[in-house]
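Page 42, continued from yesterday. The earlier attempt failed because a stray header line got pasted into the input along with the sequence. Redoing it now with the clean sequence only.
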Amino acid sequence: MGKQNLVSSIINSIIKHPLKYMATCVLVSVFLIPHLLKIESDFGVRIWFRTTDPLIKDLNELERKFGNDEKVILALHSPDGIFQKDKIELLQKLTEELWQIPQILRVDSLTNYNYSISEGEDLITAPFFDEYEELTDDYVTSRKELAQNDKIILNQFVSKDFKTAVLFGSIVPVLDGGSPKYRVIAQEIKNIRTKYKKLNPDVSFHSVGAASYNDAYREVSENDIKVMIPIDLLLMILFLFFIFRRFEAIVIPTGLVAVTILMTFGTSGLLHFKYDNLSAAIPGILIAICMADSVHVLATFYRSLKGGASKEEAMKSSLHKNFMPTFLTSVSTMIGFFSLVSTELIPVQNLGILAGLGTFYAWMFTIFFCVPLLKFIPIKQVSLAKSKEVSPEATSRYIQWINRNKNPIFYIFSILSVTALILGAQNKVNADPLKHFDKKLKISKDTNFLLKIFNGLGGPNVMVDSGGVDGIKDPRFMEKVELFRAYVENLEVVNKVTSITATVKDLNKKLNNNSPEYDAIPDSKNKIAETLLLYTMGLPQGMGINDQVSVDNRFIKLVILWNLHDAETSLQLIEELNKKATEIGLDINITGKIVLYHRMVNYIVSSFFRSIGLALVLISIMLIIVLKSWRIGTLSLLPNVVPLLFGLGLMTLASIYIDIGTSIVISVCLGIAVDDTIHFLSHYRTLTSSGLTPVKALEKVFVHTAPALVFTTIILTVCFGCFIFANFVPNINFGILCSIILTFALLVDLIYLPAIILKFNVSK
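This time it went through. Structure tokens are written below.
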């Protein structure tokens, strides 16, 4: 009774002082929306992890010792071959151009590769294409012959067929927890590519690497919003017109959507959340939620007007009928979103917080702004669309059929649920960054093109600890490193492993008249030290070996260039490499940005069960309190869990991995799907409390409530279905799975839930 008095007093206050509540809403929005200007975007891997995470600490150690492990990779492909005068000149120009890009610390290419030759006891190191040599045809041909026999050049700086050359730009490290300005770097590369494509129409340019991928994430995310929001809004307007055929009934929900999205992203700026890959999903989620809230309120308002009520009476009727149900459904949806805060991945936490707050903003503006606004809008008394209520005779026959078949229905759904659970358990937790992009996008085409040619141009970094200062000069240590390098390089999935040990072997051979027996690590610490000294003395400024050897000569860095991109196989191989290193007697740490991407999957399982478990517990408590029955509250969980199990089973059948995006689906859908159950059971409980039998109560529920559930599910399904127009594959999977699971949830509420009620004789 206290709750009813409180709600009634709030409603009466809204009707009596509409401007006060509207002004409060406006003030809140005016406070939040300007913070939009503070939003910064970041699509780097660091934003996913806490600064205290051990993985981030490993990465920081790597970057402090060797610099940023991320590369800008620009490749040019000439069908006529790279070793031609004009193509070498082009490579030289591109090398200089890349070096001028802000935040590019170093550029390595075929033309400036430090090639060493010995003259007696002297070692002369110079760029592979010496800038003081004239680029005659004979000189270019002689360089080609040298490249054919150089293990380092081949399949790293130039392909085996000599038709594709690659330039590597090293990005400056950012050790304060931020990310390089990928967008600036990527734009400069695009400008260079465009400039030289016009001058060399016979050459194709392909850019991959950190800057290109991060900018592709940004571009795809922004484009998805530009495409999905207009489609969502257009469909929303068409739905509203179909239902109400009223101008204000289109404008008010549309304005609600706009304000809710702006306030939500304003909150993001206020909380210093960065715009990331997952942020593009927020507008679509909020459009669906705003539609559901506003349709419930407006439908009751217009129905009251049609029944002869005054505008004020219609407002009061709409608030009395919808205040608590929309509040409870908003709370359940918020629980689903806020449960994501328990995950370890920062963008997932941010998504949960923003979507949860956005849900609250939608409800707040619906009740405290949109309804009071109706008082000041001239509304003509015109006929509304036909009633959505269904025939009582039809619902009676349907409920009688459910009653007769309640046992088969219960057991069939239970069996299907167990089957779906078994299927879902067979799915894999995996992620493949290369499959995040639509195949028609340039980043996908460039990646696939280069993978076919080089069998991998990126991969993890291996930091090897010699155990002490100058320890890398110990022949036994360097031999172990070279043994490990050779083992890794011989793996089928590996293109090449770059390491100073390969350079030392090559230099030792050249210093000994290219005798094959000297193609090995020198046999003393002094010889290794002399070899490295001779080599480094000849290196030009900015082209030292500190990207391979730490300043104190304790650590060596190996870079594995492989063709693996999915997390499962990558992490399996990393585990095998750790074991192999231990067998050899090496102390290694495999890290790098790509490893961080793959390591995310280790957080998914724990995060998934933690968030879904938290959501289930909180929603169960809420249902028991709201329905004032532990029995019906507990039983009501069944129809909410079953659709999630169906979704997991479907993912396995459709070969969709459990990754960051799909794991979020479960928490989101649980929060939204329970809304229908609340509406259903709240109405059912009210009817049975008035003395109706379960069968008669269900008949009335299906007459008055079921049509609204069907319609709101259609709205949600269509809004989430618009994600199919996205280019970011995780967004596509998110939308499709949400649409399918919410459709399952409706079917379960209309078939399985009444069968449960009748089977267990839930009368109150």
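Notes: Residues 210-244 form the longest helix (35 residues).
Reminder to self: strip header lines before submitting.
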